[in-house]
Amino acid sequence: MTSATRKLIIAIDGPSGAGKGTVARALAAALALRHIDTGGMYRAVAWKALRDGVALADEAAIAALARTAVFGLSDGRIAIDGHDVTAEIRTPEIDAAAASVARLPDVRAALVARQRAYGEAGGIVMEGRDIGTVVFPRADVKLYLDASADERARRRAQDAAHAASRDNGGVANVAQALAARDQSDRTRTVSPLTLAEDAVYLDTTGLSIDEVVALALAAIPRT
Q1: 188 found inside a domain
Q2: How many CB atoms lie within 10 A of CB 20?
Q3: Number of independent structural domains in the chain
Q4: 31-to-143, 186, 203 alpha-carbon distances in Å
Q5: What residue numbers bound the domain in which 71 lies?
Q6: Helices 105-119, 38-52: crossing angle, 10 deg rounding
Q7: Which of 49, 76, 134, 151 could form a disulfide with 54 if both were Cys (CB 3.0 to 4.6 A apart)?
Q8: Could you tell me if 123 and 33 are in contact, meaning their C-beta atoms sit under 8 angstroms apart?
């Protein structure tokens, strides 16, 4: 593998349940790049705000938290200020809280700055909802993963990482929660979820993970 390949910045965006996390981890492993789950950062900030009794509408306080928190982002684990919250942030409560804090401009500014710092040297696969449009608009590769609403709800309900969602009313409730998150992400004033003009759009409906990863790899230039 060449140094040019190792310096790639790969941006992956898309709605919940489209397969971003699984595909991002697979690409990072295949290309020996670092993987960053930016959605996990917003979830971790929301978790800490709730834990510390910070009102989710207190933009200044949550932005300060986002600027000063110490994140641990490796091996699929997410930690904040020394607390491994990998499992705790995958709940309906944190889903809603993360969507709320993600709408706050100062919080987004704080986390976007940190995400850019993580990836400024390249060699990274970063997933989220504004990576190719805001965080790294000049990323070497931009992928936008999507799937039908039914498919995304089914996947999320079956995802072991989201066991609380599965136990909270099944696929129908998960579908409602995803629809609410989609609406929040696409209508927020700052950094809404949208398809970058130069992104490769991948509809993952009905495809296996291996098939999606193969399509994603095919979109990445080799040198």
Answers
A1: yes
A2: 25
A3: 1
A4: 15, 31, 22
A5: 8-215
A6: 130
A7: 49
A8: yes
